[in-house]
Amino acid sequence: MNRMYSLINSIKYLFVILLLSSCNTSMVNDSSSLPVIDIEYAINNIGANSNLSSYCLSIEYIPLETNEKSFVGYKSNVHKSVVANDSSLYYNDPTTTKIKEFALNGKYINDIGLQGRNRDEYVNIGDYYFDNGNLVILDRGGNKLLTYDDNGNFVSSLSLQELRQKLNLRSFRVNKVDDIMFVAGSSIQRNGIFGVADISGNILYIDSTKNLANQQVIDLNSIDKRGSIVNLSIDCGMFTYKDTVNILYTLSDTVKGYIYNKSDIEYKNRYLINIGEDKALADGSNLSHSIYVTNGTHYESDRFIFLRIFFGMPLKKSMGPLKILPLLFDKVTCTTFIPPYNETLKGYALNNDIDDGIPFKIDNMYGNKLYQVIDAETFINLAKKTKSERAKEIASVITPDSNPVVIIATLK
Hints:
Largest sheet: 6 strands, mixed
Strand content: 35-45%
CATH topology: Neuraminidase
Oligomer: single chain
CATH architecture: 6 Propeller
Number of strands: 31
């Protein structure tokens, strides 16, 4: 029986190795292989593999309805946020700190919740996502998680104050899945923290990476002045995909995937990260001219892993003027790339060769969809330069003061 069990396990192991071998891999401790998110290659080849048609079948332009109730009130291509499910688009209005729900055709439905400090109100939206069909809002200002149903009705409020104190958190993100909370961020001591807790605040699991930089004597005068102290922090970024919660520490070489099953917490290394010779050092000595993965917004969809990377100063002219770059890992071809910089969008965008329309700057992912939000004024200006009849049609019926346009690309 034991021999048979060992044989079955050996066959399973061999199957997994064969499955992973279809990707470019790198050895881990000389005993296993994982796909590699190759940041070094992407940095050296910015703009490669950046045609939208290589990954997507179609593109839609959805102007969000503009009226007194639906108006989101901003005219800038920054601080925008949209999440989606199978029936609605949820837009975070940065000027009023309020989430507005729109149908997939852009028609306004209603506002979600109210701003304030009561139990059923939020102060500052740090994140929002779906859990079992309900919309969950992380209220960082109020230290709580708020849940609303698909009609925008308040369901529950969960205080995070005690959990923050237990984990000694300075900055954090919380993903709630059923009755379990996954918490990731940085402690007061600027160590990376990942924890799992139940909704009563009981800690079920904790993982931490020590901030080696704070133990070193560092000449801050030699470091880029922009947030130099913050740059010394070790943070833990977190993103979910189906039943897996992924974490990635600053300076880490590995993406870990966690699954909570009843009373057991399982994790496995999912991807390796190669930054190369420009990787930031733990002592902070090269932060002004190095690269590392930020703890900011990361996503995973059916096709891509989307990470944000930070560099102290442009190492190459092609990197553009921004210090934060979007990085895409194609899970099908196992290639890593950074789209070219688009001056009008002030960001990195895929070439929209599907309809020769608006360049596509990824703002979010859900299932087999990619989402971009673009303010009306910029959309109008770009539509004039494209060959897309649909983009031109929309531009002709909106004004610079209209609500943004959401662009949706469907993956192959």
